[in-house]
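Study this pair:
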Amino acid sequence: MTKSRKNMKRRSGKTIKSKHKRGGAVLGHGAFGCVISPALPCPGVPVSLMRDTVSKLGSFSQMGRDLEILTKLSSIDPTGKYFPKMMGHCEINRALFSRQNQIDYNKCTRTMREMREAVMRRREAQEKKARQLLPRKDRLPSPEPAPPLADKPANYNIILADAGASIQNIMFSRGLSRKEQGDRAEIVKLNIVPKLNRHLKNLVEGLQLLHRTNIIHNDIKLDNMALGADMRFRILDFGVAREIDDIETKTDIMDFTSYIREGTITYLPPEVFIILELLNKKHTLPASLKKLIETYYLSHYHTIKPNLTEKILIAWIKKTVNIQKTDTVANRYIKNFQFVDYMNVLIRLYPKLDKIYRTRISSKIRWLEQKHKTLKSRPTIGDFDLVDDIAKDFLYNNYGKKDIYALGLSFKYIYNSISRRRNVGKIAKRLALFNLYKKMISPYFWVRPNASECRRDRYFS
């Protein structure tokens, strides 16, 4: 959900929820679905439950995961405290539509097409930029322009309780009139800043509940958080959510790349780009996927986070090998062998590290040769693979840290926005919030706190 209309006004100290306009509105949209208000009719859903609801429309094949997750959330959060409550779902039957329903449906279909076209244009611009960075002799000819996209009709309707306006729309919308800017500033001043601790706590508790149920959201961002009429922050949009049990059964390289890169690129943590780069260097990926990784993900990452890759990989190797003075000789032998193996692969991938670490690697090799002669029985050494090992460590042991990073980045944006604006008030426990989001966006994913640890942070005490 990328856009939302303003649905709250502040008058005479009272919070009033504005009525849905008769003309309807597309509240949020993506390449494969959109949210409209008021909700479209669904057979079997009583009219009494349709008050203050919205419809999420899309094709069933693409909304199946969303529906599955929302069904589970109905049992773990029946009151809708942390997530929008699902009121019903059905296949779209246009015979039940009123004239206004038909207008809203057509508007949604048109918006989905425009969004897909915008995604294609953005990707073509990234590819063009990547081609221009190559030497002229290595540049491939520009591809033929893509044909115009046809409308992709939505065939499934999920009815949700109206969760309110997105935080992105309330705090960061641009191109608004002075009156709209004033309305939003008043909402921030009266409904967000004084209760910021409670709002952020609700988000952390919602994420904690998701992770305890073995669900990873995969697309935490300000667009997918909303302030409802009951003055609660809620987490929205489970279209790319994954279940941990499903992740742990995957070992194929294509599954790795698919699961790792899910989410909005500007909210992805650095380890996602690093692992994609390593997999791209080690494995022969399909040409289309290889091109996507290089021109979309890596060009974005190296622009905003230069020279971070080697630091993270070196830190991960030290953490994984973890040689201790109390280790037995046999254990130290295995760990030194593992360190040398990892470092040789790393230097092969990033040759500039050779000058920095060659002396240390050589000393480890000499120690191994010496112990090899003196040890009566050589310890059993397993297979070490830097690329696959770090990918599995992230996917199998730390996949939920992806949500933590995105939530921490959202906290940072909220913190910075309020701090810059003098007319919305001051943040209580400001230093504690600053320290919390700094821990949540640590570039070292194994150090990042999980949702339960975030909930126990002193900012929420």
In short: The first strand starts at residue 8 and ends at 11. The domain at 8-235 is CATH 1.10.510 (Transferase(Phosphotransferase); domain 1).
